[in-house]
């Protein structure tokens, strides 16, 4: 049995469409756990009325992604589940998503398995997995290596976001939960993936299991969409900031091999500090060129 854990907060329409997509799955051997962290837009009421099969855990509104997810994971473990999947409510899984996940975990039952992400508006693949390199802080993206004929089956990676990651229950029992203390929101999923690999577990991405995503709805995307000093500060220090300097430093100290640590920190911190203003300047120059 798979238990799908999804924290939600005040995105009633997204949550509704997400649950409708899960209702249409060809393989029904799963349960959905929604952790509603204090929504005030009628999300919980909608779930109770329209999706009575969903396990609804209501919280007070003082959680972030990692802590809310851990609540759902603990519930699933008490149910003696075989696998736990973390999945966001701003996704739309294809009808055969669960079916394709089961196909591969029956062949490889001890791996962590991610899903192929497709942009809902364009239909283009936006995330096909990556291999992260501690030596230089960069990643090799599988979409740059694979031909279109190879966009099938499973491919090995060494990092994966929490969006559509299927994890054997034993992994949580062996390595622990998401580190909500150090990474309440962003980077908690990366830290979990790094820890799993360091404990000897393999991670793959399943190109047969597809989810549609709404890239512009992520908190990181919203910070980058509109350039401002406030957004630059949020990028570097906000819990939702993709370039959060504190979180990045902690994840490096926890997971990076010691021989690469200094260079990894220097490169990573400078990249996060400089990337936002560089892109901002380039955007301003483009606007000026268009006007002239």
Instruction: Characterize the largest beta sheet: strand count, sense, and whether it forms a barrel.
Output: 5 strands, mixed
Please tell me the CATH architecture of the largest domain by its name: Alpha-Beta Complex
How many DSSP helices? 11
User: What radius of gyration results from the CA coordinates?
Assistant: 19 Å
Here the CATH topology of the largest domain equals Spore Coat Polysaccharide Biosynthesis Protein SpsA, Chain A
Distance between the termini: 61 Å
**pLDDT < 50 stretches:** none
Helix content: 40-55%
Which CATH C-level class of the largest domain is it?
A: Alpha Beta
Description:
By secondary structure, this protein is α/β, with parallel strands linked by helices. The chain folds into 2 domains: 2-217, Spore Coat Polysaccharide Biosynthesis Protein SpsA, Chain A (Alpha-Beta Complex); 220-291. It is built from 11 helices and 12 strands. It has helices spanning 12-23, 43-50, 65-78, 97-107, 142-145, 169-175, 188-198, 219-225, 229-237, 245-255, 261-291; strands at 2-8, 30-37, 55-59, 83-86, 91-93, 112-119, 125-127, 130-132, 139-141, 154-157, 165-168, 203-213. The strands form 3 sheets. It has a 5-stranded mixed beta sheet with strand order 3-2-1-4-11, sandwiched between helices. Strands 5, 6, 7, 10 and 12 form a 5-stranded mixed beta sheet that branches. It has a two-stranded antiparallel ribbon with strand order 8-9. Helix 1 (12-23) runs parallel beside helix 2.
């Amino acid at each position: 049995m798979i238990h799908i854990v999804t924290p939600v907060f005040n995105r009633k329409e997204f949550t509704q469409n997400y649950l409708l997509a899960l209702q249409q799955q060809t393989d029904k051997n799963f349960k959905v756990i929604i952790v509603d962290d204090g929504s005030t837009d009628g999300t919980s009421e909608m779930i109770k009325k329209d999706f009575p099969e969903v396990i609804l855990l209501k919280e007070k509104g003082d959680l972030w992604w990692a802590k809310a997810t851990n609540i759902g994971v603990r519930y699933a473990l008490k149910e003696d589940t075989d696998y736990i999947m973390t999945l966001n409510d701003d996704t739309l899984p294809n009808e055969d998503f669960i079916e394709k996940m089961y196909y591969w975990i029956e062949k490889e039952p001890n791996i962590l398995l991610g899903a192929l992400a497709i942009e809902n508006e364009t239909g283009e693949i936006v995330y096909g997995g990556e291999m992260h390199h501690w030596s230089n802080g960069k990643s090799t993206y599988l979409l740059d290596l694979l031909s279109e004929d190879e966009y099938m089956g499973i491919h090995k990676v060494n990092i994966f976001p929490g969006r559509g990651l299927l994890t054997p229950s034993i992994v949580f029992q062996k390595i622990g939960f998401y580190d909500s203390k150090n990474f309440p929101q962003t980077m908690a999923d990366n830290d979990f993936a790094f820890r799993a690999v360091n404990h000897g577990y393999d991670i793959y991405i399943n190109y047969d299991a597809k989810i549609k995503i709404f890239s512009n709805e992520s908190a990181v995307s919203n910070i980058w969409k509109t350039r401002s000093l406030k957004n630059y500060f949020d990028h570097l220090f906000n819990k939702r900031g993709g370039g959060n300097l504190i979180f990045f430093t902690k994840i490096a100290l926890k997971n990076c091999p010691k021989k690469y640590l200094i260079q990894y920190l220097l490169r990573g911190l400078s990249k996060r500090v400089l990337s936002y203003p560089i892109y901002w300047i380039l955007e301003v120059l483009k606007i000026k060129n268009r006007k002239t």
